[in-house]
Write a structure and sequence with these properties.
The protein has 310 residues and is an alpha+beta fold. The chain has helices at residues 14-23, 34-50, 75-78, 115-118, 120-124, 129-137, 166-169, and strands at 25-28, 84-88, 108-113, 143-151, 161-164, 178-183, 194-196, 208-212, 219-223, 249-250, 258-262, 267-269, 280-287, 306-307. The strands form three sheets. Strands 1, 2, 3, 4, 6, 11, 13 and 14 form an eight-stranded antiparallel sheet that branches. Strands 5-12-7-10 form a four-stranded antiparallel sheet, with no helix packed on it. Strand 8 and strand 9 (219-223) form a beta hairpin. The longest helix has 17 residues, at 34-50. The protein starts with 13 loop residues before the first helix and ends with a strand.
Length: 310
């Protein structure tokens, strides 16, 4: 849970909100206390140790953001919105035989996507008054948590994630996604911490979105369309300032840090070549009043996406 010193109704100071609006991200140290951070890390490690391989399709995860591989899109992935599922690192397999080359607890890229409802520990650390206050401070009217993940960034094989915008993968019209990214271990330059193109949320439109293929079987990126919004409502857009090449700022953070990430912001992380993992927990919030259609890869469970406000 967040420190008692934080205002649970507002969540953000004026200075923090100004920094977020200017840069497109905000780093909040000690958003989770040490005990809660350790318990979430322990819960994630327990999940990795106990999930069965006997009925697992051995799905490998790829974002498709590096341009050399397609985004994962099998049935195991597409039906994970109301389940807890485990997705392998591509480099966890022997390239010559295809056999798993790492112990399973060191082979998983991420756990997703319904931790915020099905895991009591992660639910408590997601759907709480502090995060509701943060969402309120960001201007959400009806914030909905639509997915949650533990990303492991495993030692030596934790894959690179190329520059991307979260609203491409979680598109609403107009765009509204915000990532709540929480370090469960120290994130460093050596183990693949995030880097950000400061201010790119004000100059880089959402051009494409990840959708289910119309004929079934897989996903694809499609243009958002001329009649669909590419920036959030009332966003301070800097027309004509988009850059061919962005400069990225590396941000090392300590365990327990919360990073808020605007859905239009370009961000990335490098491969983990170190001997230390980089476990993080992240969930995404969208505006429940905005249009979220049936083409999106992630579809709401029967009860709808989780409400952040009581």
């Amino acid at each position: 849970m967040p420190p008692d010193s934080l205002d649970h109704t507002e969540g953000l100071t004026k200075e923090q909100l100004q920094s977020y609006n200017e840069d497109g991200y905000l780093i909040i140290p000690n958003a989770l206390d040490a005990s809660t951070t350790a318990s979430l890390l322990q819960e994630a490690q327990h999940m990795l140790a106990t999930f069965p391989l006997s009925d697992h399709p051995m799905t490998k995860f790829s974002t498709g953001s590096t341009g050399d591989k397609a985004h994962v899109g099998d049935d195991y992935f597409l039906t994970s919105g109301d389940k807890i599922r485990f997705f392998f690192e591509e480099d966890a397999f022997d390239p010559s035989t295809g056999a798993l080359a790492k112990p399973k607890h060191r082979a998983i890229n991420k756990i997703g996507h319904y931790l915020h409802e099905l895991s009591p520990a992660f639910r408590t650390s997601t759907l709480n008054s502090y995060h509701a206050g943060v969402a309120r401070g960001l201007g959400f009217r009806d914030p909905r948590v639509l997915q949650s993940m533990v990303i492991c960034k495993q030692p030596a094989i934790g894959g690179k994630v190329g520059a991307h915008q979260d609203s491409t993968f979680l598109y609403t019209d107009p765009p509204s996604a915000v990532g709540f990214w929480i370090a469960l271990e120290d994130a460093t330059a050596e183990n693949g911490c995030l880097s950000f193109a400061k201010g790119s949320h004000r100059r880089t439109p959402i051009r494409s979105r990840l959708v289910r293929k119309e004929n079934g079987g897989g996903v694809e990126f499609m243009d958002v369309g001329a009649d669909s919004a590419r920036f959030p409502d009332n966003a301070p857009v800097e027309v004509g300032t988009e850059r061919e090449e962005e400069t990225y700022t590396l941000e090392e953070v300590k365990a327990g840090t919360l990073v808020l990430i605007h859905g239009n912001l370009l961000h990335q992380s490098q491969k983990n070549l170190s001997e230390k993992s980089r476990f993080i927990y992240t969930f995404h919030v969208i505006e429940g009043e905005n249009k979220y259609d049936g083409r999106n890869w992630l579809q709401p469970p029967e009860r709808g996406f989780s409400k952040l406000y009581p």
